[in-house]
Amino acid sequence: MTGTDRLRQITEAVCEAGSLGVAELARLTGASEMTIRRDLEVLAAQGVLQRYRGGARSLVLRGEGPPFALRSQDGLEAKRRIAAQTAALIADGESVVLDSGTTCLEVARALERRRVTVMPLSLHAVNALAGAPEVTLLVPGGHPRPGELALAGPLTQASLAALRFDTAIIGCCGLNATNGLTAYDLDDAAVKRAAIASSRRVVAVTEAAKLTRTALAHVAPVSALHAVVTDASAPEEETARLTAAGTVVHRA
Residue ranges of the HTH deoR-type domain (predicted)? Predict the structure, then answer.
């Protein structure tokens, strides 16, 4: 088990139980108690849990996604393939609104040498594109959510409403033909809807695992998506449903 996998397993176990002791987590993961203590310190620094003597309690609410710092290294190679495929769909000279999230951050990195106009919806992606010589960078208003640094609120929505983009690249927490594109956070869902409304074309980017999930907040039906870019392990049955709904599915 990699360190990232172990951190994810610890996060999920503590979230499910509410709190767990070091000895219990060591048995669960097969790691030493010393390793578990170090992992708990890492997760506490990320705001995922709160340490107490002999264990930890969760600070992640049920129904929330894992924290950004943990997700950023999860499935990184697949995210980079998705990002490269997505960047290939963007023509030079296009204007792009780029959603928040770890997969969209990799898309930002894939676009940094392209001649495009980009408005990222997270400060992580703004930072990734800040030194890109060919990119015309637009920075929206709004307040950044801790950890995610995703921009949200009325200033973000007003920034989106004032512009018209060629393409919106949208991340998600869940996507399927039945429930459409969904997000965990209501403010995030509102920003995604505003980005979609301001764009001529909509491309959703997602790892294959999210094609079987539905999150709390509905963003858009599948019919609003012109294309979906996912990885090669995407289930055939679900991609067939997306295709039947009129969405072009690209596997990276």
Answer: 3-58
The alpha helices in the chain, defined as continuous H runs, are 3-17, 22-29, 33-45, 68-71, 76-88, 102-111, 123-129, 154-161, 186-197, 236-244
* Residue 185: both structure tokens together: 């956070």
Condensed to tens digits (0 to 9), the pLDDT of residues 197-239 reads 999 999 999 999 899 889 999 999 999 999 999 999 999 999 9
Q: Convert the pLDDT of each residue in 95-133 to its tens digit.
A: 999 999 999 999 999 999 999 999 999 999 999 999 999
d(CA 79, CA 81): 5
Do 192 and 98 touch, CB atoms closer than 8 A?
no
The label of the residue with tokens 């994810």 reads: 8
Number of residues that this document lists for the chain: 252
Residue of 213, 186, 219, 232 whose CA lies nearest to 81: 232
